[in-house]
Design a protein that fits this description.
Blueprint lengths: L1 H21 L15 H4 L2 E4 L2 E4 L7 E5 H4 L29 E4 L2 E2 L10 E7 L2 H4 L10 E6 L5 E16 L8 H15 L7 H9 L21 E13 L3 E12 L12 E14 L4 E17 L3 H7 L8 E3 L7 H9 L8 E3 L9 H7 L1 E19 L7 E20 L4 E9 L2 E10 L9 E23 L3 E16 L13 E14 L3 E11 L9 E12 L12 E15 L12 E7 L2 E2 L2 E2 L2 E7 L8 E14 L4 E17 L21 E21 L2 E18 L18 E4 L2 E4 L3 H5 L3 E2 L9 E3 L7 E2 L5 E5 L4 E11 L2 E11 L2 E3 L50 E3 L2 E12 L13 E14 L3 H4 L9 E11 L1
Parallel strand pairs: 4-7, 35-37
Antiparallel strand pairs: 1-2, 3-6, 4-5, 6-7, 8-9, 8-45, 9-10, 10-11, 11-12, 12-15, 13-14, 15-16, 16-19, 17-18, 19-20, 20-21, 21-22, 22-23, 23-24, 24-29, 25-28, 26-27, 29-30, 30-31, 31-32, 32-39, 33-38, 34-36, 39-40, 40-43, 41-42, 43-44, 44-45
Pfam families: Plug
InterPro entries: Plug_dom, Plug_dom_sf, TonB-dep_OMP_SusC/RagA, TonB-dep_OMP_SusC/RagA_CS
Keywords: Signal
């Protein structure tokens, strides 16, 4: 099948070329893109395997000029803020994760800095991505880096320094409050209290904090008020008619907010070098060479500080044991004399039987890890002008090789911790004994820890045809072969590499025609291949057709003088992809011989062979069938520019194991399964995206305001499922539908519990959450879960604003979302058992607060009734974030007259992640168990020489 398609494409393309040659004598004028006026070349857009004039883009393609954006908005991430300019992009594209290509090569976003980038192009529609094959079927983000331009040597330098200030920290209760409430929880459960009043009182009064610990992780004992980041970049470019070059060298360094133990030295150092050269080797042959080298060095002291901050109870142990409190005896003194970790000459490391090692002790004595990565990216391309064969014919060929190596150099020491036994003698607290855990073991050598690599090779060969006949007939033809292979190492104990590489190969064909840039037709397609599928099903054909009509050029639009440009486009596509086939060999059955039974065919004990998965030799590609309609244009002298797309996608053939409806139940048991993977489920995604911008100027004042957004919906069309109650079926509901229980408040007393439907989630008591018996069967169980909302926002939007007055500019942008829900289900909110108590529990239910309580009763058990997703914990995930703001001053050119060194100079102040507007702002800005969210305040200078 694959060979047939390849032959078909070759024949069609050859016929096209021969047809062009046959009509060559009829040409009146030949015009190519390179012959277009200067203003047209300024609007060239990167598209798959080439460029195209913006006016000829047939919809669902949006571009952001990052090079221009950096003049008013400092950033390091190339995609930061793109959603403020591009409708339909929210980190994904139309609800699906895109393929990221950097200079046409699949690469990590970490491989490029924003200062190296010229443009970002977001390919949304299926017809826009089809030439990239299976791996691009969910959308593509093209990141194009800067290149040299013909002109004198130019040097641009930029330096920044700024501070990260935490937005918010979780608020946990102090030790005395914790113990008091834990005693209350014990009373609720009918178990004995474990904290006496004297301990609680002494802790509250701060009497001997070593005996009565009260650890506050979120304090100046362990954290700084802010930390610093600085970076510098130098760009060198220039060239003549035959050779242009570009080089970008950058470095960045930051420390950390933690200010305790070895983690005081936490830091990240990044060095990067990118360069390229464009060479015109002859009148018909040119070449490009691109290389990038990235060094990342990360130093971190051992110890999970943030994890401990969310889990370690404030009174659990004393992190430091004062040697000044030790009673005089030889045994205790020997611990001091022989300890390798005498902190500040005053303390031994603290612990207890439950936390024999802990994050704080790790930070003081366990050592450190140096994480290092070395990345090399290389690409070489050759372009041949074959106009000697026929005008407009060119050939491109490219090969790239990327290698990323990651390893760690570590230093680890084992340490002993001590739990003091206190006694009061003559009114003084002293330590009369020490319980010890572990041993001090000092290592004098670093060792290599993790080590892994990733290698990616890609290539493409492309035969292009681009001609204009009689100034009206514009013909394009592209025949493309593209593929890449990515191979990564795996964990130690395997053979050192992936069993199967990530592979993408496809053959693409594009045939396009437009008449006078008014009427357009484009046929783009690909033959895709996937080794994930069984033989016979590994090749498929993905066709797309797009039509376009520039209505503004029609005579009936002459009266609408305010319309500068208005273009309507429509497309149909049927793509084939293997992205949703997660693993290789999913079409094969397999057996497991690790099962063990006490009996087997009369033999006592031994291994048995059981089926783990059935085979499906008919497993095939997942398809994306898409209809799209787009409208773009400009009004009032290009002061208003807009773009909008409606899309309707049906993803068919998503995999299912067929456990519910396709096969008898006895095919699947707890210890074995004969169920195969089958193409069964379907999803539909619909919606429209839009972007509008308006610019104007009055005297020295200029402004530009833009808004972009998307209205999005989805439906699980087909699911392999069986439920007793119709409302629980996922089919017919949004793909991101969130199910949970309907909460009715708290049970007030035992009588109310007895008169309510029986809740099956443990032993329910007064103060526990009461749920609705939705199906009225007298029992509250999983059958009473209903759809509570959507986890993905159906409406997202972004804003951007630029104000200019003389040499001053103010830029701001932000993003918002509306219509989704979330659950307050982190350990900060779901407090039970021995979990740390947050301020949320202060609103707990008690008999006295039954009418005002905002939180269930406290419990020392797991309490499976209260802590499950329900309307009680649900919140609206609506928010708007001001993500960037920058004030820039550009020195007038007259300042540099008479000097040959400096030609431009700019100073700027900027901020990132400045504020959030939301009813749930406090929760949204608070991280639990990880480093906090930060606001970043920066000062920068940019100069051109």
């Amino acid at each position: 099948m694959k060979k047939i398609f390849i032959k078909t494409f070759t024949i069609v393309f050859t016929v096209l070329c021969l047809g062009v040659v046959s009509v060559q004598a009829q040409e009146e004028t030949n015009v190519t893109l390179n012959d277009e006026p200067e203003e047209e070349r300024d609007s060239i857009v990167q598209v798959p395997f080439g460029t195209k004039s913006k006016k000829d883009i047939l919809g669902a393609v949006s571009t952001v000029n990052i090079e221009d954006l950096l003049k008013k908005n400092y950033q390091t991430n190339a995609l930061d803020g793109v959603e403020s300019f591009v409708g339909g992009y929210t980190g994904d594209i139309w609800g699906q994760n895109p393929l990221i290509l950097i200079d046409g090569v699949p690469r990590s976003l970490d491989n490029v800095n924003a200062t190296e980038v010229e443009t970002v192009t977001v390919l949304k529609g299926a017809s826009a991505v089809v030439l990239y094959g299976s791996r691009a079927a969910k959308g593509v983000v093209l990141i194009t880096t800067k290149r040299g331009k013909q002109g004198p040597l130019t040097i641009e330098a930029r330096a920044n320094t700024g501070i990260f200030v935490p937005k918010s920290y979780p608020n946990y209760l102090d030790a005395a409050s914790y113990m008091t409430l834990y005693n209350e929880a014990s009373d609720n459960d009918g178990v004995a209290r474990i904290y006496d009043e004297a301990t609680i009182y002494n802790t509250a009064e701060g009497v001997n904090p070593f005996k009565y610990p009260d650890i506050d992780y979120i304090s100046s004992d362990y954290l700084k008020e802010y930390y610093n980041r600085s970076d510098a970049t130098v760009e060198v470019s220039g060239g003549d008619e035959k050779t242009q070059y570009y080089t970008n060298f950058g470095a960045s360094y930051n420390d950390d907010i933690i200010d305790y133990g070895e983690q005081r030295n936490n830091s990240d150092l990044n060095l990067r070098l990118r360069g390229n050269v464009d060479m015109k080797l002859s009148e018909w042959l040119s070449a490009e060479a691109n290389a990038s080298v990235i060094f990342n060095n990360n130093y971190i002291g051992r110890g999970d500080f943030w994890g401990a901050s969310a889990s370690m109870r404030p009174n659990w142990f004393t992190p430091l044991v004062p040697i000044s409190s030790l009673t005089e005896n030889e045994r205790l003194q020997s611990f001091v004399d022989n300890s390798n970790f005498l902190i500040d000459g005053q303390y031994l490391l603290g612990g207890n039987n439950a936390v024999q090692t802990n994050a704080l002790a790790d930070m003081l004595g366990a050592g450190y890890i140096r994480y290092k990565s070395r990345t090399f990216l290389y690409k070489v391309s050759a372009m041949a002008d074959l106009s000697g064969i026929t005008k407009g014919l060119t050939f491109n060929n490219s090969f790239s090789l990327d290698y990323d190596n990651y390893f760690s150099e570590a230093y680890r020491e084992e340490y002993r911790t001590y739990n003091p036994v206190w006694s009061n003698m003559n009114g003084e607290d002293i330590i009369v004994d020490l319980n010890t855990y572990g041993d001090d073991v000092v290592s004098s050598n670093e060792y290599v820890g993790d080590s892994r690599y990733t290698q990616t090779m890609s290539f493409f060969s492309q035969l292009n045809y681009l001609r204009t006949f009689s100034d009206l007939h514009n013909v394009t033809g592209n025949l493309i072969g593209w593929g890449f292979q990515s191979r990564a190492s795996v964990d130690e104990g395997h053979d050192g590499s992936d069993y199967q590489s990530t592979v993408n190969t496809n053959l693409g064909l594009q045939l396009a025609y437009n008449y006078a840039h008014k009427y357009y037709v484009d046929f783009s397609s690909a033959v895709v291949h996937s080794p994930k599928l069984p033989e016979g099903n590994r090749t498929a054909f993905s066709p797309t057709v797009t039509l376009g009509w520039r209505m503004s050029d029609e005579g009936f639009m002459d009266g609408a003088s305010f319309i500068d440009n208005l273009k309507l486009t429509a497309s149909y596509a049927n793509l084939h992809q293997d992205l949703d086939i997660q693993d290789y060999y999913m079409y094969q059955g397999y057996f497991d011989d690790n099962a063990w039974y006490q009996w087997r065919d009369g033999t006592m004990g031994g291994n048995a062979v059981l089926s783990g998965q059935g085979a499906n030799p008919n497993l095939s590609f997942i398809t994306r069938e898409e209809y799209r309609v787009g409208l773009d244009g400009s009004l009032f002298g290009n002061s208003i520019v807009f773009d909008a797309n409606y899309f309707n996608q049906l993803t068919d053939g998503l995999l299912s194991r067929g456990a519910s409806t396709l096969f008898p139940s006895y095919f699947n048991r707890w210890d074995h399964s004969f169920l195969p993977n089958v193409n069964f489920n379907k999803d539909r995604r619909t919606g429209y995206d839009f972007s509008v911008s308006h610019q104007n100027e009055v005297g020295d004042f200029k402004y530009n305001f833009g808004v972009a957004g998307m209205v999005y919906d989805s439906e699980a069309v087909v699911r392999d499922e069986v439920y007793q109650d119709a409302y629980q079926y996922r089919a017919g509901k949004p793909v991101d539908a969130s199910f949970g229980y309907i909460a009715e408040g708290f049970f007030g007393d035992l009588a109310e519990i007895e008169n309510h439907a029986t809740q099956t989630f443990g032993n329910v008591k007064p103060g526990d959450i009461k749920y609705t018996d939705v199906n009225g069967d007298g029992v509250v169980d999983q059958r009473d879960q209903v759809e509570l909302g959507r986890s993905r926002s159906p409406f997202t939007y972004g804003l951007n604003l630029t104000l200019n007055y003389k040499n001053w500019s103010l830029f701001a942008m932000g993003q918002g979302q509306f219509g989704a829900i979330g659950y307050k289900n982190s350990s900060y909110f779901w407090v039970y058992g021995t979990r740390k108590y947050s301020e949320e529990v202060l609103g707990r239910w008690t008999p006295e607060t039954a009418n005002t309580a905002t939180y269930p009763r406290l419990s020392t058990t797991g309490n499976t009734n209260n802590f499950r997703n329900s309307s009680f914990w649900m919140y609206d995930n609506n928010r708007f974030d001001l993500t960037h703001a920058q004030l820039t001053f550009d020195f007038p050119e007259t300042v540099f007259q008479g000097t040959s060194l400096l030609s431009e100079l700019s100073l700027y102040l900027s901020g990132q992640n400045l504020f959030t507007i939301s009813k749930e702002r406090k929760m949204m800005e608070m991280n639990i168990g990880s480093a906090p969210q930060y606001r970043f305040y920066n000062f920068g200078v940019k100069a051109k020489f």
